[in-house]
């Protein structure tokens, strides 16, 4: 029996994610081997260029997805937050494993200790807009690159903002100065979650069902419905975070535009409907700061 070929980016974090999914598959399907196929993406090759100039965060996943579509790999593993709003024809998100911490963290100096006019670096417009809503006096600077590069640049700023899950997965959570709550900094859609793609309707997609965490899937689908309805990709200055509340979901959503930053909190049983409603209401001008 041929091993399952698992496509991933080559960064340290992407390799951790791929190895994690590979380990889960080996435990669940010990009779089927797994091998990792590393794919170079434009987003990794052009780390000195703002994402908005090269197509948004989709540049991190398109070439990995292509490896599955053209037969070089059977599975693609992504950070769910990097996925564009729409899944390409022929592919399906076959599994969403148990989600990690979805929150953002400051590395360097905690929020209250940042000096007046302090410099905070992030490559995310979502993070920048929400940071300025918390502290309008701060100077937000652009910073791209892998986790190691961003941490190396931390000394040139008072703080940088990095996803908690990324730091934890790389054993770097000791660098966290403060974890920001989801009310302070609404996360990116899918942040902390992994998405495992395969060809739609195929045997591999069925096999990947053993990796599924139902609550993680339900929350991520609610957040992705928000992004689809908003009509943007992962570079839009917007975020959404869903979490369980009994049998229901609580969805927090945020959108920044020329009118400012607006937030909504909705609750209900149908996550996809919640995501769509939040997007429609924020796009229509509803929500407070």
Find the CATH superfamily of the largest domain.
Periplasmic binding protein-like II
**In which order are the strands of the major sheet placed?**
2-1-3-10-4
- CATH topology (level 3) name of the largest domain: D-Maltodextrin-Binding Protein, domain 2
Our estimate of the beta-strand percent is: 25-35%
Low-confidence spans: none
| Mean pLDDT score | 91
The tally of beta strands, per DSSP, is 13
- Cα-based radius of gyration, to the nearest Å: 19 Å
Give the second-level CATH assignment, the architecture of the largest domain: 3-Layer(aba) Sandwich
Largest sheet: 5 strands, mixed
Listing every helix as H and every strand as E from the N terminus to the C terminus, the arrangement reads EHEHHEEEEHEHEHEEHHEEEH
End-to-end Cα distance, whole Å, is 56 Å
What is the overall silhouette?
globular
Just give the CATH class of the largest domain: Alpha Beta
The number of helical segments is: 9
The number of domains: 3
Helix content: 25-40%
Overview in brief:
By secondary structure, the chain is an alpha/beta fold. 30% of the residues lie in helices and 25% in strands.
Description:
This protein is of the alpha/beta class and 289 residues long. The chain has three domains: 1-97 and 193-212, 3-Layer(aba) Sandwich (D-Maltodextrin-Binding Protein, domain 2), CATH 3.40.190.10; 104-180, D-Maltodextrin-Binding Protein, domain 2 (3-Layer(aba) Sandwich); 213-289, Double Stranded RNA Binding Domain (2-Layer Sandwich). 30% of the residues lie in helices and 25% in strands. It has nine helices and 13 strands. The protein has helices at 12-28, 42-45, 62-69, 125-134, 147-152, 164-169, 203-207, 214-230, 271-283, and strands at 4-8, 34-38, 75-79, 91-95, 104-107, 119-121, 139-141, 159-163, 176-180, 194-199, 238-245, 248-257, 260-268. The strands form three sheets. It has a five-stranded mixed beta sheet, sandwiched between helices. Strand 6 (119-121), helix 4 and strand 7 form a beta-alpha-beta unit. Helix 8 runs parallel beside helix 9. The longest helix has 17 residues, at 12-28. The chain is globular and about 60 Å long. It starts with a strand and ends in a 6-residue tail after the last helix. The model has no long low-confidence stretch (mean pLDDT 91).
